[in-house]
Amino acid sequence: MKTETKTMDVTDVYKNIKEIIETARIHTYRFVNFTMVKAYWEIGRAIVEDEQKGEKRAEYGDAILKSLSTKLTAEYGAGFTLTNLKYMRQFYLTFQKGHTLCDQLTWSHYRLLIKVENPDILNFYMYETANSYWSVRELERQINSHLYERLLITQTHTLNYQILQNQQQSLHFLYNL
Question: Tens digits of per-residue pLDDT, 82-107?
C-alpha cells in the first residue's frame, strides 16, 4: 500500500515537473525568437538610417548590402544573405515603430506580412495571426485567398441587405398608413 501511494505521489510530481519544463521551453523559445525578430528590426534600422541616411533606397545600397552580406555570412552563417538583408530593411520600413511588433509572431510571419502594402490589411493579418495562433503556412493561405477582402465584401453585402430590409419595412409601413 505504501509503495502504491509513493508511486502515485511520484507520478503527480513528475506531471507537475514535466509541465514546468514544457512551459519554460515554450517561454524560452518565444523569448529567443522575439529577441531575434527585434535584432532583425535593428539591423533593418541600421541599414536604412545609418547606411542610407533615412532614404528608402540609396544609390549605393546594393553594393553595401552585398558587402555586409559577405561579411555577416562569413561570421554568423547563412541567415544574412543579400535577400535576408533586403527583408530586414523592408521589415524596418514597414514597422518603423518597433513597439508595434508582436512577440507572438516569428520572423517567417513578418517576412510574409511585409509584402502586404495596405496598413489596414497588414494590421488585420497581424491581429488575426496572433489571436488565432496561425502558423506561417496558414497566414500565407489567408493572405493569398484574400481573407480580408472577402470579409469586407461579406460585411458590405450584409449591411446592404440590412439597409434594404429597413427601407422595405419603412415603405411597407408608409404604404399601410
Answer: 999 999 999 999 998 877 788 889 99
Q: Which residue has the cell 515537473?
A: 17
For the chain, the C-alpha Rg in angstroms (whole number) is: 26
d(CA 62, CA 59): 8
| CA 139 from centroid of its chain's CA atoms | 9
Query: Any long-range contacts for 152-158 (C-beta under 8 Å, 24+ apart)?
Result: none
pLDDT, greater one: 171 or 150: 150
Cell of 62: 546594393
Note whether 113 and 65 are within 8 A (CB): no
Report the distance separating Cα 67 and Cα 64, nearest Å.
5
Domain boundaries defined on the chain: 2-145, 146-177
State the number of CA atoms in the 13 A half-sphere of 39 facing the CB. 10
Query: Above pLDDT 70, what percent of the chain?
Result: 77
